[in-house]
Amino acid sequence: MPSLTLYFERRPGWGARIHIHWWNTRPATPECTWPGLPLTPVGHGWYRVELPGIESLHLVFSDGLGHQTRDHHRATDGWLDARGHWHDGHPPHLDAPAVSRAPVRPPLSLLSLDPRPLAERSDFREETIYFLITTRFYDGDPSNNFFCRDRIQFDADGNPVDPHWRGDFKGLIARLDYIRDLGFTAIWITPPVENRSGLDYHGYHPYDWTRIDPRLESPGATYQDLIDAAHAKDLKIIQDVVVNHSCQYGIRGQVHVDHLPIKYYVPHGSEQGRVAHGPYQGNLGNYAWPNRDDIDNPVAPAWYRERHARDPEGLEPLVDPKTGETVPKPGYAPGRFFGIDPQDLDPAWYHQEGFISGGDWESVHPLQYKHLAGDCIDLATERQNVKDYLIGAIKRYLDMGVDALRIDTVKHIERDNLLEYIRAWKAHKPGLFVFGENLVKGYGWGDLGGGDNGPSQIRPWWYTRLGHDPHDPESGGDSGFPQLDFGLFSTFRDTVSKGTYAGTAQILGMDWIYGDVTQLVTFLQNHDVGPDNDFKYRFKGEQWMAAAAYNLIWTVRGIPCLYFGEEIEFMKGAPQDVEGEKDTLHQTGRAYFGDHLSDARIAATQAHPLYRHIRRLNQIRHAIPALQKARLSHLAEWGSGMRFVRHHSESGSYAIVGLAIGCDQEMGLDGVQPGIYRDAVSGREIECDGRIRFHVKANSAGIYVLDGPGKIGEDGLYLR
Ligand SMILES: [Ca+2]
Ligand SMILES: [Ca+2]
Question: Which of 452, 432, 436 minimizes the C-alpha distance to 444?
């Protein structure tokens, strides 16, 4: 069958979606309706289209925004460059696959399976990340445990169990060896700064950025102790940072948000002194503080500070200065205790535009200037006092030795505004790695299409770039602020969760939209999302599907990140967060993990097939620079298999990867570097003259490394 393959180089000012329209084909084909067939981006501004069954045609390319080429005629494959000239072969500036002819390097020495000492690791792509919610990981000190007001779990006898604040730094320090044995070299912990809200165990409701929450620390296990202990084991600490919002009670020492002390709240139908809610007895004030209050803000008004210092029972009448009513009074205005009034916020610190609702979620300005939730109050991040406070507070943790930062709720802050913060921290600690969370359930191409309703300005790629054209990622260079790879994650719902890789090449074909795709942080799930159904459950699929997912994540571009518990299918299928009104954490993906890390059970945990699998993937990735740092080339994918090349020219590291899911697969590639290849999985050696053929077992991988060290690690259920 005849076939034509045409390439098109996007012209200055053109949009990113290119179509080809044709007529007068030979042999004759049905009429092509405008704008015709979309082209596939292949990077560096080039697009490709394959036209099976066509020998010759007349054609134009267009961008759907009013730009089109003149009429062309073509009867052979060709490349049309941006100046309008055809080339029969690729023009020199197209980084086409299969043309690399770099000299074969001398054999790599047998690399240590242990990661290099921390001091020698300045490129974060050498790391892999273990992400944990500190309070749910491992409890090393029950004396700092604490129940949040909301979502308390009671046992059959009515006793409160499973305090939300349970795991702590002492426990984490005690289990650093577990994370290290699993092969991870960096630990991302949830925000450690002091929090306030009815459900703040995860750290995303900050009250004081300058202090570490005392519910995480113990004598001998402060934040500094954690950082030092991690470094002593060559592990890096990634601190999670909230920039977008504070809790609903303001910021200690900076700004107060008007409300009444919670100890004066009495639910409708109850009376003061009769509240019975776990450790909250008598009233709902903070049971761990002597005066049953928790807002010790020196900038609160005098009447508030006066009550903070006494009357723990909350019995003495207090006049609400806003309404003139007197509390405690059953059923009186819960919002005066637990909520905010957007009208009353201090404009020096907070935005004044109310709460996000409905269509705001896909609209740039409201998404960035309204409050995310009742306990996430939108900071005026563009104001100098806010910048000074947040930037200064985090610099102190960098001085303590924090190695990297993860930024929360990125899309809720305008990019150029947020980059001011990122740059200030990077200037303070040169080489600092900072990545962001821009949550999207979908490809996230924004104005580039792909079924996306939202604009580019709230999508991950936008924050990795500096340009200002939402239709053109290449209108600006790399911002130096990579993101969690929600685009790849979103495909897992329809790929690995269904036992196939089908569609993976489509998303990896868009790698060019990111500033530096090799710095994205890749993952199967996290504390908010999972790849099944509507993206809210711990991975539900079969174990072999998870194994095949990790094979993909650990061998494609990006920095792999595992969410704690994945290694044993912990809470498989549970919602990542509480769903119904009455759910408690033990029913969710945020259940307490520490029971699996006890001295009695840790050996069983470490024997889980996925634990062994992930451990080996980490060993392999740490030994092969191309798997850490190279982009993809030679990419092909056919559902039950895929293959690609990772070539890191700076180190000379070159790896050919084949992945099989569901059944065994035969791999074949042409145009690869000749030489001796050794499979890091099976140890098999192949002498290659530019063509390579190899077999991959179901749910395993072939990782053929040019002049490679041979087999790395031990065979398991899936890598074999
Ligand atoms: Ca504890
Ligand atoms: Ca905001």
Answer: 452
User: How far apart are the CA of 409 and the centre of ligand 2, in A?
Assistant: 9
CA angle 253, 258, 259 (to 5 degrees): 115
Nearest partner of 204 among 376, 352, 440, judged by Cα: 376
Q: Please tell me the total number of residues recorded for the chain in this structure.
A: 720
pTM to 2 decimals?
A: 0.85
Between β-strands 56-62 and 46-52, what pairing exists: parallel, antiparallel or unpaired? unpaired
- Helix, coil or strand: residue 488: helix
DSSP one-letter code for 371:
B
* The token pair that represents 224 in the structure block: 């500094």
Complete DSSP assignment for 295-316:
---TTS-HHHHHHHTS-TT--S
Could you give the domains of the chain? 3-87 (2.60.40.10), 258-337 (no CATH), 630-706 (2.60.40.1180)
Gap from CA of 366 to ligand 2 centroid (Å): 9
Tell me, in angstroms, the distance from the centre of ligand 2 to residue 379's CA.
6
Report CA(591)–ligand 1 centroid distance (Å). Answer: 14
DSSP symbol at 11: P
Q: For residues 641 and 36, what is the distance between their CA atoms, to the nearest angstrom?
A: 30
In this structure, the strands spanning 632-637 and 153-154 are unpaired
Radius of gyration of the chain (CA): 28
CA of 229 to the centre of ligand 1 (A): 18
Strand pairing report for 186-189 and 250-251: unpaired
Read off the tokens for 324.
Answer: 């003139």
pLDDT in tens, 199-209: 999 999 999 99
At 223-267, the pLDDT tens digits run 999 999 999 999 999 999 999 999 999 999 999 999 999 999 999
* Distances, alpha carbon 601 to alpha carbons 78, 598, 608, in Å: 62, 5, 12
Q: Measure the CA–CA gap between 530 and 539, rounded to whole angstroms.
A: 6
